[in-house]
Structures are given as structure tokens and as C-alpha cells.
UniProtKB/TrEMBL annotation:
Keyword Ribosomal protein belongs to the record: no
Name of the featured protein: Ig-like domain-containing protein
Segments passing through the bilayer: 114-137
Acetylation in keyword set: no
Gene3D superfamilies per the UniProt record, alphabetical: Immunoglobulins
Organism this protein belongs to: Knipowitschia caucasica
Keywords: Disulfide bond, Membrane, Transmembrane, Transmembrane helix
Domain of life the protein comes from: Eukaryota
Length: 165
């Protein structure tokens, strides 16, 4: 295998956002070769080396890699954190950024897209179900009118036979 793109990194924070000490996790999967993981605080400041732990694990049976990186750092709630996954062979860098640490979970663009797609799909299914129910009600009314018409016609025929006899 020559090269494969990593998934967009997912950046998450563990623990309450109001604490000064924070643990951030960055995860990405399915790429080749082994990536370089880097962290930035406020888009310019690199964290101390001993505050970062990174594991790059091969996926069994396909020679791709999954990467998990952990950043433990003291930051204020106004600071931002970003995690980058760099695939040197493809000259590609994927980054997830937090816009302050007050939110407990930071989602990558890919997961935001999935959320929007899922919401749109649910709305579309809801509209289709509503249209189906409305159409079924319409058909039921037509059938009731036909039955009522046939009953009235049958009664008229019976009464006309009785009056003619």
C-alpha cells in the first residue's frame, strides 16, 4: 500500500470545562503511512513534550493505521486547542480546532456534516410518512363515499322493485 487518507480528526475534551487542567483526545483512523500528530494552543503555542501521549496502531489485515493522541495541559476557558494529523506522503494535514474550551466536545467538520445529513434525512422521512398518511386518509374517504353511494343505489333499486310489484 502506498498511501491512504486519514479520517478527519475528532477532538474531544474530558472533564468539566471550568477546570484549569484539561485532557484533550484526538482520534483519526484508516490512513497510511504512520502520521505525524501535532497540537497547538491558541494556534501558535506548542504544548510541552511531556504533556502529549500518542499511539499509532496498525489495523489488523489491511496495513492502515489508527491514531490516538492525548494532551494534558493547563489552560484557561478562553484558550483554543487544535490537533493536526499530517500524512507526509500525501502532503495532507487534517486539523480539528476548538474555539475555546467551554464546550465539552469538539466535532470535526465531517461529524458536523453527518449531523446535518441525519437531520435532513429525518425531516425527509417525516414528510414522506406524513404524505403517505394524508394519501391513505384521502383514499379511505373515497372508498367510504363509494360504499355509501352503492348502498343508496341498492336501496333505491330495492324500493323501486317493491313499488313496482
Amino acid at each position: 500500500m502506498n498511501q491512504a487518507r486519514f479520517s478527519s480528526p475528532l477532538l474531544q475534551r474530558d472533564g468539566p470545562p471550568d477546570q484549569d487542567s484539561a485532557v484533550f483526545w484526538c482520534r483519526s483512523s484508516g490512513g497510511f503511512p504512520k502520521p505525524i500528530v501535532s497540537w497547538l494552543i491558541n494556534e501558535t503555542e506548542q504544548p510541552p513534550e511531556d504533556s502529549v501521549w500518542t499511539q499509532v496502531a496498525p489495523v489488523p489485515d489491511n496495513n492502515l493505521y489508527n491514531v490516538t493522541s492525548k494532551l494534558t495541559v493547563n489552560i484557561s476557558s478562553d484558550d483554543s486547542v487544535s490537533c493536526s494529523i499530517m500524512n507526509q506522503w500525501m502532503n495532507e494535514t487534517l486539523t480539528s480546532r476548538s474555539s475555546g474550551v467551554t464546550d465539552n466536545t469538539f466535532r470535526s467538520r465531517a461529524s458536523e456534516g453527518m449531523w446535518m445529513f441525519s437531520t435532513g434525512l429525518c425531516v425527509a422521512v417525516g414528510i414522506m410518512v406524513g404524505a403517505g398518511v394524508a394519501y391513505q386518509i384521502h383514499l379511505d374517504r373515497i372508498i367510504r363515499k363509494k360504499h355509501k353511494f352503492l348502498e343508496e343505489t341498492e336501496e333505491e333499486m330495492l324500493t323501486s322493485k317493491e313499488t313496482s310489484v
